[in-house]
Amino acid sequence: MVEHLPSDEPETQGAHLELLSLIEQHPEYSQRRLAQAMGISLGKAHYLLKALFDKGLVKAGNFRRSDSKLSYLYALTPAGVRHRMQLTQSFLRRKEQEFELLRAEIDRLRTALGQQAAGSRSPDTVS
């Protein structure tokens, strides 16, 4: 089982989930390309990727590109695949809770608007 670090807060978990998913779909992406795909800086991508390496969730292998530059091919480890699934489940639960809270707030606002509209349509009685 992968240990959960204090830095595993929802924002970091979301970034790790996105990075794990990108690596799974595009193992040939460089750190620069991963950063671009995520809309983050190269430094942040490196930081996130290093954390995944340190946890044993991602591994890298060397390969040669046709332009003779050495590059890496990233791959999720079996623990990385399991962790991505756990993050997906956690993310989904959190988003479903947020959705339910938003739905309740929308219902309250609609009710309040309906009551205000009904109140403004009835004639004011003056004694």
Q: Which key phrases capture this entry?
A:
Arc Repressor Mutant, subunit A; two-stranded antiparallel ribbon; 64% helix; 11% strand; disordered N terminus; MarR_EPS; MarR family EPS-associated transcriptional regulator; WH_DNA-bd_sf
Q: How would you describe the overall organization of this protein?
A:
InterPro entries: MarR_EPS, WH-like_DNA-bd_sf, WH_DNA-bd_sf. This is MarR family EPS-associated transcriptional regulator. The protein is mainly alpha-helical and 127 residues long. It has one domain: Arc Repressor Mutant, subunit A, CATH 1.10.10. Helices cover 64% and strands 11% of the residues. The chain has four helices and two strands, in the order αααββα. The protein has a two-stranded antiparallel ribbon with strand order 1-2. A hairpin with a 5-residue loop joins strand 1 and strand 2. Helix 1 crosses helix 3, helix 1 (10-25) packs across helix 4 (78-121) and helix 2 packs across helix 3. The longest helix has 44 residues, at 78-121. It is elongated and about 80 Å long. The chain starts with 9 loop residues before the first helix and ends in a 6-residue tail after the last helix. The relative contact order is 0.12. The model is unreliable at 1-7 (pLDDT under 50).
Number of strands: 2
Order of adjacent strands in the largest pleated sheet: 1-2
Query: Which fold name fills CATH's third level, the topology?
Result: Arc Repressor Mutant, subunit A
Low-confidence stretches: 1-7
How would you characterize the largest beta sheet? Answer: 2 strands, antiparallel
The CATH architecture would be Orthogonal Bundle
Rounded to the nearest angstrom, the radius of gyration is 24 Å
Shape: elongated
**CATH homologous superfamily - what is it?**
Winged helix-like DNA-binding domain superfamily/Winged helix DNA-binding domain
Give the count of structural domains: 1
Helix count? 4
Distance between the termini: 74 Å
Q: For this structure, what is the CATH class?
A: Mainly Alpha
